[in-house]
Amino acid sequence: MNSRQRRGVILLILSVLCALGAFAGVLSVVHDVQSKVGPEVTAYRVRSRVAPYAPLNPGQFEQIKMPKRWLSSNAVTSLRQIEGKIAVTTLEKGSLLQTDMVVDQPALQAGQQEVAIMIDAATGVAGKITPGSRVNVYATFQGKKEGDPDQSKIIVTNARVLDVGQITALEPDSKNQQQPTDAVPITFALSTVDAQRITYAESFAQRVRLALVAPGSQTTVPDKDRTYELATDK
Length: 234
What we know:
With about 230 residues, this protein is an alpha+beta fold. It has three helices and eleven strands, in the order αβββββαββββαββ. It folds into two domains: about 40-105, Alpha-Beta Complex (Type Iii Antifreeze Protein Isoform Hplc 12); about 115-230, no CATH class.
């Protein structure tokens, strides 16, 4: 073997050693990254904006993978965790789904029943009332006989809303010129007495309106303040 061949062999060996060193360096970097990142787990991201108190379904979320060490302890890792849940706040597109963003759907308590009535879409709901809301129910009645004053009454206080349906166009009623043209079915959780009051108002009141009660407020209205007549207003 002449000197030129020896130099070629030495260069070849050096090249192999350099390649092995580079490979070892890459393995070291990968191992270091893996040790810092850790194993990946499943999480879920919001596909598109979800309104508050809206029922949740799997199609609203997309599955993603992310390092377990970067995932918050309350992140949703299985869609079973949202079964029977509603959004407690607005879920923005792209946000990571977490358990504190959802709550159980409202359910009936002992002694309650579901009652649905049609409410004027323009004056009774106005897009502000959602499942889980608390409302006071107002009804206006004509005087019982000619000359008697018209009255506005609070017939139910702190009624819990279970569901808000879709706006429905009503058939015009020639006998009731004040009938709304569009209405929304609202489902309440009510006691037997309150259910009777609210269905009576739907049938015989000139107009039924809902007033949203501030969250967390359970203030009742005194009996003396439940009926209003314009003539007695001071």
